[in-house]
Amino acid sequence: MPRGRYSLHDPHDHTPLAEEHFHCAVGPSGWRYVSQLTTPSGDHHGSVDLTLDELGRPIRLELHAAAWQVRGAALDGVTWVRTDPTGTEATEGNVRAHAFTGTSPAFLVATARLLRLTPSAAATRVRLVALTDPVLAPRTVDQSWSLLKREAHATDNDPLTVDEYQVTDLDTGEQHAVHIAGDVVLAAPGIELEDLESPPSAFT
User: Fold this and answer.
1) What does the alpha-carbon distance between residue 128 and residue 133 come to, in Å, rounded to a whole number?
2) Phi, psi (5° rounding) for residue 114?
3) 3: burial class by Cβ within 10 Å (0-12, 13-18, 19+)?
4) What H or E segment, with its residue span, contains residue 186?
5) What is the pTM of this model?
6) Nearest one of 99, 104, 111 to 75, comparing CA atoms
């Protein structure tokens, strides 16, 4: 069960945004990721609880940020309920999309798991609902993912297989690289893996 800490920063000016303390696990029915976020000053900033089924679809998502809450799942595309800080109003949304995304590294692992790309495959288009900080506002984004290469790196224990993806925002044409090993993001724009207590889990 990998357990560790990511630092999140603005990918453009590198302003520190939060630290995300996480643990995740692969199980017979899929994958679960749970994290708590703190501000650079140490205050509570939010939380992530994401469960995927064995096909990589989000069967349960619960996000908290700035007293806002979103609960969602894959249902007729993806469906979610967003609740305001006072708890008096809740708005429901539904989009013909494949999954969710956001600032948490969990969503990069989830998208890679959903697509299951191979290095020889063509780029794959995916529609996602992005839940953006600080108020978890939903917006639909279209991306293209391709697996550029898969490399095994020697470690003190077993070799570590690292996948390098190229992700393209189809609205802007902006491209960036994402490096993932098993169920842990090693590097991506705005994300640094600062600490990892145990090796990544391998998806079967």
Assistant:
1) 16
2) -65, -40
3) middle
4) strand 184-188
5) 0.95
6) 99
Cβ contacts of 86 within 8 Å, gap of 6 or more: none
Task: Report the distance separating Cα 110 and Cα 129, nearest Å.
Answer: 13
Alpha helices in 28-175 (DSSP H): 105-115
The single residue listed with the structure tokens 């889990």 is 201
Domain regions of the chain by residue span: 3-196
Cβ-contact 31, 126 below 8 angstroms:
no
Which single residue is written with the structure tokens 């790309």?
Answer: 117
pLDDT at residue 159 in the model: 82
Neighbour-count burial for 43-77, b at 16+ CB within 10 Å, e otherwise:
eebbbbebbbeeebbbbebebbbeebbbebbbeee
Alpha-carbon distance of 3 to 23, in angstroms, equals 4
Q: Which two tokens stand for residue 163?
A: 């996948």
Q: Cα–Cα distance between 82 and 99 in angstroms, integer?
A: 16
Residue type, 57: R
- The pLDDT tens digits of the residues spanning 149-189 come to 999 888 777 788 999 999 999 999 999 999 999 999 999 99
Letter for the amino acid at 23? H
Termini Cα distance of the chain: 15
